[in-house]
Amino acid sequence: MRDLVTIAYLEDDQEQADAVVRWLKPQGIQCIVYGEPAELRESLDTINFDAIMLDVEIRGEESGLSLLHHIRRERLEQTPVLMMSANAFGQQALSCGADDFLEKPLSSRI
Questions:
Q1: DSSP E strand stretches across 1-110
Q2: What's this model's pTM, rounded to 2 decimal places?
Q3: What's the DSSP call for residue 7?
Q4: Nearest to residue 87, comparing CAs of 61, 64, 57?
Q5: Paired sense of beta strands 5-10 and 81-85, if any
Q6: CB-based contact 7:24 (threshold 8 Å)
Q7: CB 9 within 8 A of CB 34
Q8: Are 68 and 93 in contact (CB under 8 A)?
């Protein structure tokens, strides 16, 4: 039996977050959604995530890119990080240590 995969998802658009959770759940992936970088930052000390998805342009004081810098500086350099944005931040995200980049809006079509 396969272990449950747990990912953290930083997204301030609730509609987008709900759609991703609905899409991942049948795939056997538990997706914990965070609306604020500070919430996710706190969870990094207590939850061992299999992967992290970050919206680059999160509203508030801290961006997804600054949280990526924190993740890579800390003990999580091996945790896969996927960055997402509706704007052209792909190269910047990849050069900052993201493992991959998705352009929003996301689609469940493969």
A1: 5-10, 29-34, 51-55, 81-85, 100-103
A2: 0.86
A3: E
A4: 57
A5: unpaired
A6: yes
A7: yes
A8: yes
Largest CA distance in the chain: 42
Amino acid present at 47: I
Phi, psi (deg, nearest 5) at residue 93: -60, -45
Look up residue 24 and give its two tokens.
């991942």
The pair of structure tokens assigned to 90 is: 């792909």
98, 83 Cβ separation under 8 angstroms: yes
The predicted pLDDT at position 43 comes to 94
| pLDDT, tens digit, 9 for 90 and up, residues 43-70 | 998 999 999 999 988 877 788 888 998 8
Could you tell me which residues are beta bridge partners of residue 101?
A: 83
Could you tell me the two tokens for 105? 């809006």
- For 46, the token pair is 């207590």
Q: Which amino acid is at 2?
A: R
